[in-house]
Write a structure and sequence with these properties.
100 residues; alpha+beta; Double Stranded RNA Binding Domain; 4-stranded antiparallel beta sheet; 43% strand; elongated
Amino acid sequence: MSFWKNLFGGGGGSGSAGKSIEPAVVAEEAYKGFTVKSLIMPVGSEYQLAGLIEKEIDGELKSYKFVRADRFSSKEDVVSFALAKGRQIIDEQGDGIYRP
């Protein structure tokens, strides 16, 4: 039941009920004309793998956010893996990540 409460916003008691917490950017690097950013998404005592890939195309800043199921106990590990995952996505898809 806890899974469903977390998924649909039920329950609470943390003092932040009803508030959406945006993940914080903790590291970034330039890679092949893109900017890869590692996002910190705390989930309990762990951190979920998440990142942001940005690139300016025709004068417009495009963004692609990714969130993976992987979780890490160390902030340093999640940062390292998020940047690596961002590089992998760029290598595999390039500008295609911004197509509708």
